[in-house]
Amino acid sequence: MTQGVDIKKVGFISLGCPKALVDSERILTQLRAEGYHIAPTYEEADTVIVNTCGFITPAVEESLSAIGEALDATGKVIVTGCLGERPETIRERHPKVHSITGSQDVEGVMDAIHELIPPDTNPFTSLIPDTGVKLTPKHYAYLKIAEGCNHKCAFCIIPKLRGLQVSRDAGEVLYEAFRLIASGTKEIMVISQDTSAYGVDIRHRESEFQGGQVKAHLIDLATKLGEMGAWVRMHYVYPYPHVDEVVKLMAEGKILPYLDVPLQHASPKVLKAMRRPGAGKQLETIKRWRDICPDLAIRSTFIVGFPGETEEDFQLLLDFLREARLDRVGCFTYSDVQEADATRFAEQVPEEVKQDRLERFMAVQQEISLERMQEKIGRVIEVIIDDYNEEPGQLIGRSKWDAPGIDGSVMCVHGDLAESEAARLIPAGSIKIGDIVRVLVEDADEYDLYGEIIEVVPWKPNVPQLGHFGKH
Ligand code: SF4
Question: Any known ligand binding at 82?
Fold first, then answer.
């Protein structure tokens, strides 16, 4: 039936954070719904969409060079995403881009696509898919609960780019999670700019979910998500008081014992200059969370070399690290972001001092990370399998304390490669990507755990699985 039909192909470059990835998925879903195909190479593409990131200077550069490359290859480029909120920056370097839209503007992107390559209206070839497009592997997915941010951190331009916070209704979010889990997703990563503030902008209004009403509040949402029986992971959670209730859900095993809390610094003076939300009494808060949920893993990110940061401030940060003993930590040197307030701050820290502080910071944290990881040796933990490794029987997975892409892995063996009786009994090749297994942890380094798979955990979510309705 499709002979002679000119199927339009769109190249797609997705840059930036998980929030941008969710926008990319929406655009790709719409493209597929309208019968466009996704081109794997520039050569095959009729046009290219670049979903850009504008967060920090290196990300802006990466976006601009991706646009340039796509223009050289195809001559027809549609730009969207965070950097699209600053069209003059793009036009200055690349005057020939076809159109520029900001983040979340699926409609704007589709309008541009229709102009450049009108859709195929043949009813036999323009098939509407029944599920969305996911850029992540099938077993995990990002769930965006809000867009934008109400804060004014001095180093950040996200509120300027993406606007004030707009939360989605809880019912809409929960139905999306339900659909994802029904179609095989086992792990849901909850994301937004400020997850703790979810629902504040819509006054925590109620919406319908499965015949009942649910409040747009983080605790209500986390409770309902936890009831679906998948792994639920919380990202970008600021330490507001009600987060204690979320940590209680973790202690009860309803959601994963994992909190991604971007703290950025520990010196009160620097935090004040940064205008960070929820800053203050950080150690007290962490201790309280660990009392509630001793198995909690805390991930955080920090910036060293923020304007005005003295050696004394930096020492406070190192002291904090030693005392807080966080599980997973990322650190960046401060870099100017065009239009961010901090670019105008006096007392910029010299580049070599920033680098020196970064190295000292990482040296302290690496020792802590190693100790934290070694504490896990001898435990039996649940691991979700992400990938195969070199030999049959070697697999790469993640524990409940590791988010994909940013944390460590659990390197596991079974079958002939294993030493324990239990692991040798599981034949190599019998475990697939997305399976959840129990692993006896035998070794650890700063980032990864190593162990043997001793059991496969049956997958029993509280959501009917697509293709299994009515079956037992
Ligand atoms: S909380 Fe601060 S860093 Fe995060 S998006 Fe909002 S303004 Fe930016």
Answer: yes
Q: Is the pTM of this model over 0.70?
A: yes
Statement: residue 74 has pLDDT above 70? yes
Provide the residue ranges of all domains of the chain, joining segments of one domain with +. 9-116, 140-374, 380-457
- Tell me, in angstroms, the distance from the centre of ligand 1 to residue 3's CA: 51
CATH code reported for the domain at 140-374: 3.80.30.20
How many residues does the structure list for the chain? Answer: 472
Assess whether the C-beta atom of 153 lies below 6 angstroms from ligand 1: yes
Cα gap 304→355, rounded to integer Å:
9
Mean pLDDT of the region 360-388: 96
Query: How many alpha carbons lie under 13 Å from residue 113 in its C-beta half-sphere?
Result: 29
pLDDT tens digits along 88-114: 889 999 999 999 998 888 888 988 988
Nearest atom of ligand 1 to the alpha carbon of 264: 3
331 annotated to a ligand binding site: no
Question: How far does residue 262's CA lie from ligand 1's centre (Å)?
Answer: 10
Which CATH number does 9-116 carry?
Answer: 3.40.50.12160
153 among annotated binding-site residues: yes
**Residue 128: per-residue pLDDT:** 36
Judged by DSSP in three states, 52 sits in: strand
